[in-house]
Hints:
Elements: H1 7-35, H2 40-62, H3 65-70, H4 74-90, H5 102-133, H6 140-168, H7 171-189, H8 192-200, H9 208-243
Helix pairs in contact: 1-2, 1-5, 1-6, 1-7, 2-5, 2-6, 4-5, 4-7, 4-9, 5-6, 7-9
Amino acid sequence: xxxxxxxxxxxxxxxxxxxxxxxxxxxxxxxxxxxxxxxxxxxxxxxxxxxxxxxxxxxxxxxxxxxxxxxxxxxxxxxxxxxxxxxxxxxxxxxxxxxxxxxxxxxxxxxxxxxxxxxxxxxxxxxxxxxxxxxxxxxxxxxxxxxxxxxxxxxxxxxxxxxxxxxxxxxxxxxxxxxxxxxxxxxxxxxxxxxxxxxxxxxxxxxxxxxxxxxxxxxxxxxxxxxxxxxxxxxxxxxxxxxx
Length: 244
């Protein structure tokens, strides 16, 4: 019962809950995008199981958070994967395919949510792990698990609202895809291998302001690539259907 009287523990709990709620916006966007085309009776299942899978993966990642961020090229690979996920979510290439069943779409949506969250969590879990450190190592996993469980209703509710808004206002779908592209560009440019390479060239004079500007530029490029590539993919798919 000593844990209940531990001020640091409860402070860490509040910090982790706030972090999870704030970071849950990314989760809500990718869940809504992945589930927007599911039949009405399967949207809730897709949102629920996608959220549960993402939460479990994030808890597991906490133990390896600091190590993951130091692995060269991991964030580059993650950024490219997230870029492709954003392109796929903005394209509608499977909607007219008669071979894609309702259950296939549900399973594909859940897989997409889990994979996207796994990639995005590489950065996000560090903030949670840092907040949990204050309460001591023996309480870290408990804190992380509790904080993520509390954030589940916010993620699920946010995803449900976004799905409904996407059906009424399609522009939100495009904005969601751009957000994923923005995150992918930021991941790519912040990889330790690239930062180390830039630091080797003294003429670049790599300082905080330059890194910050490069992050914005890379994020912008990532968002634009998602938009252009998805439109090209949709155009190719439409021409293929018309030819058939």
